[in-house]
User: Fold this.
Amino acid sequence: MIDKPAGLTSHDVIDRVRRILHVRRVGHTGTLDPFATGLLVILVGRATRLAQFLSGLDKEYEAIIRLGYATDTGDITGKQIPYPAAGSMENGPWTREQIEVALESLRGNIEQVPPMYSAKKQGGKKLYELARRGEEVERKPVKICIHSFAAIEGAGKQKGELLKDNRDGTFDFAVRVNCSAGTYIRTLAEDFGKRLSVGAHLAELRRTRVGDFSIEQAKTLEQLKVILVEEGPGTILCSPDAALSHLRFVDLGAEEISRVRHGLNIRMVGGAWAEGEPVRLRDEHHHLMAVARFNAADGSLHPSVVMATEQS
Assistant:
């Protein structure tokens, strides 16, 4: 897990990890915009095949929403879009009650329109490629879930204020968001501003959690170099089984282990899984052998990703 710095793309981080670890196969479970910082879950070697089971995990972010104007990208890197200024009242023009109503309206199961400046594809082209050419296309709203959306009390306040007055007609509002995969925090910031009848964009964004992985476990690229030299890779790499601890598991017997190595189905008696649910298959040492999908029709588990193919 890497604590990504601002200014680097997620692909830049992958390239640097490749050079540090001297490993060709390196991937991640979800991009962060260049201006954003925080947790980037890195997969190395054969573990890159497990990305599909990690990319859909819930995520947590800490962000600064700047109220006062919107931008064409929805974040601080974009060009300002004309919009009524927020004003410059000493304590801000919105009460705590107004802010809470705006936050509450964006919690729970909602629909969100993906921003034009995103990697989402439409008609075979990434939206940001169209946006850079000055094109805008209609996007269908996507269902997401905002588990929590709240102010970070005491963050960036001046004289005990909920909002930080930047003395230039803008106000900064620090928030923490827990959300489902596929949520665009930039769009959430814009929609929050609309609830308060003001333009808004992201001034800062930091990812602090992906599933059970937290930013406290992450290392900077500089720390990774030092740890690799002083302690070796074994101290910083998480086992594939631990990485998928959110999935239920089955410990296999000798005959089942042999079948799984060859990608063959195994029958389960009394398995209480949902159709298509991914399940960890482990050997007698609790090492991950494969991830299987449950077939409810015949009560079998079909290995969809096999990690261990040779007799140990």
Remarks:
- Residues 85-91 have pLDDT under 50 and may be disordered.
- The longest helix spans residues 10-21.
